[in-house]
Amino acid sequence: MGVKHIHIAPYDPRWPSMFDEEAVHIINALGDNCVAVHHVGSTSVPGLAAKPKIDIIGVVKNPVKAIKQLEEVGFSYRGEWNIPFKYGFTKRGEASINLHVFEEGNPEIELNLLFRDYLRAHSKERDEYAALKTDLLSDDSSFVRSNGGFAGYTLGKHDFIDSIHRKTGFDGVRMIHCTHHVEWEAARHFRQHYFFDKLDIPDPFTWTFDHPAHVHLVLCQGADIVGYAHIQRWPEARAAMRIIVIDEPFRNTGLGIQFLTLCEKWLKGQGIHTLHIESSPKALPFYLKNSYREMPFNDPEGYESHPDDTAIGKLL
Fold it and tell me: Is the pTM of this model over 0.85?
């Protein structure tokens, strides 16, 4: 499946005023729910060529409440795309708007603002980014969709964007869905190294990477991937945590609790009521400390449990 067309336009000095005009509508629509509105993305960087779509971050107190508020002024809700806790909206008209709504305090806000401000202050990297876009559009693979529907053009910018994140010094902790090959390779490494190497077998469950009932997430600290989780959605508003692991150099820093808490919060927002885990004896104290209790696993697919594991769960 391919993308029909991606248009990159020279920088248009009207883009900031387009943002200003739309920001007024957004602020009025959100009312007391609005914390801040920011112009981000390539159209927010003077001199940078960009797709002529105005990217805006809306910072709110209650993202769920914001859905109806924004739909009432012409925005279409599109879901989270590849970033948990992001509420994505589009609006098409005289100006094309992509609106990314986050709850106040979400690290994605700082990540995007630092990226924007870095390119505003460093013309060399700004021009390198523009050249990269041109190069990507000369490659037919940039128009092919993959990894959850993202075009090769979007994925091809990953390494450059990652390099800028490192230069900005961003060190926030964020959870994202696996979409880019770097994230999928990290997922493969975590699975094989920490689980299946111990059994001396190749990972037999990589088929879950392409299965809609299975969710694969990575935890990032700054620009580094430091953890991985594999969750399976079950019927009746249940889910199973098949794998959750923090890379060994980053353990004993609180990241494990942060990762588990983020997974629980995201699943609850997805309508999941119960999270089930089959815990090894070594991991059991960690889960008990985080309010998990013995609970029947009842795998709907009938997989047999390891005799040493304990079936536990938590109401979300």
Answer: yes
Task: Tell me the torsion sign for CA atoms 281, 283, 288, 293.
Answer: negative
Residue type, 16: P
DSSP string, the chain: -B-S----B---TTHHHHHHHHHHHHHHHHGGGEEEEEEESGGGSTT--B-SEEEEEEEES-HHHHHHHHHTTT-EEEE-TTSTT-EEEEE-SSSEEEEEEEETT-HHHHHHHHHHHHHHH-HHHHHHHHHHHHHHHTSGGGGBEETTTEEHHHHHTHHHHHHHHHHHT---EEEEE--SHHHHHHHHHHHIIIIITTTTS--TTGGGGG-TTEEEEEEEETTEEEEEEEEEEETTTEEEEEEEEE-GGG-SSSHHHHHHHHHHHHHHHTT--EEEEEE-TTTHHHHHHTT-EE-----TT-PPPPTT-EEEEEE-
pLDDT digits (tens, 9 = 90+) for 104-143: 999 999 999 999 999 999 999 999 999 998 888 876 554 5
For the chain, what is the mean pLDDT? 92
The CB-side HSE value for 207 (13 A sphere, CA atoms) comes to 2
Lowest mean pLDDT among 14-18, 40-44, 130-134: 130-134
Domains of the chain, start order: 15-168 (3.30.460.10), 173-315 (3.40.630.30)
Strand partners, 216: 230
For tokens 């098949």, the residue is: 242
Q: What is the mean pLDDT of residues 140-151?
A: 54
